[in-house]
Write a structure and sequence with these properties.
This protein is of the alpha/beta class and 319 residues long. It has two domains: 113 residues, NAD(P)-binding Rossmann-like Domain (Rossmann fold), CATH 3.40.50.720; 174 residues, NAD(P)-binding Rossmann-like Domain (Rossmann fold, 3-Layer(aba) Sandwich). Helix content is 34%, strand content 16%. The chain has twelve helices and twelve strands. The longest helix is centred in the last third of the chain and has 20 residues. The radius of gyration is 22 Å and the shape is elongated. It starts with 6 loop residues before the first strand and ends in a 17-residue tail after the last helix.
Amino acid sequence: MSGAVPAVVIADPIDASAVTRLSQGPCRVVDATQGAEALSAVLPGAWGLIVRSRTKVTAELMSKAPQLAIVARAGVGVDNIDLAAASARNVRVVNAPTAATASVAELTIAFYLMLVRDLAPQVAATKTGSWVRGQNRGELAGRTVGFVGYGRIAREVARRVRPFGVTTIAYDPFVTSTGDGTELKGLDELLGESDIVSLHAASTPENHHLLNAARIERMKRGSYVVNVARGPLIDEAALEAALTSGQLGGAALDVFEVEPPQRPSLLAHPKVVATPHIGASTHEAQARAGTQVVDEVLRALAGEPLLSQVNPEVGGKKP
């Protein structure tokens, strides 16, 4: 950097207290949250780049930032960042791996309760003046929840849901033991045993439409699907067909194949609870995300080891 003060560009809004903390560090903070044009104008001088999910950090974008040394994602998933291109340019990528754990876990359990009690249509009907009683619904107690993907968030959901009297099982090809009482199963076995299939896997080419028509047919009739991970894990056409046929009793979706979603009939389906990708949208989670990525940027500025680098093969040095 030839003695110049390194510029850290904030492309997407993060918590104000985190911005204040960053501004007190040995860098110049550049606000480019106004949009793509503002970001493009400041990329040539960017040493660091902080994003959330809106900004797509592509190879083309990084090519406009010749001084770029670190990209910080204020959230868990980094699928909006071209990791291969970043590594090829020796750009370190960090995230905030624990920021949204509690908020996504809470939403997940809320979804379980909404589905088994069929709460959404009852709330909507009551607000319009309807007063329909005597239609008994189910309880969460005694159910089996099957986690597809058993990472940090799924483990936190399992820990929180067991006191409801729930049995937890999981499928994850990268996990050999859980250490928490959750039994590991094969995917087909899990689908056949679960009352609720809870998706927590990463979006990869191998996992595209992981829950397809054939696998949905292997599920218990009348069981539920919850997706708080990534939309492409589910074949939405197959999901809608299974809801209509009664093969599935309901689905709760915080994520979709295309966002905003492009399948109005799925959103309008009476057995669907839908939210606009708000799993991490709590004040507390966003504050943690901002703090965690700013702390990582400050460590990078100081030449200290990073704690949440997702491409560890790339080294770094103090600017």
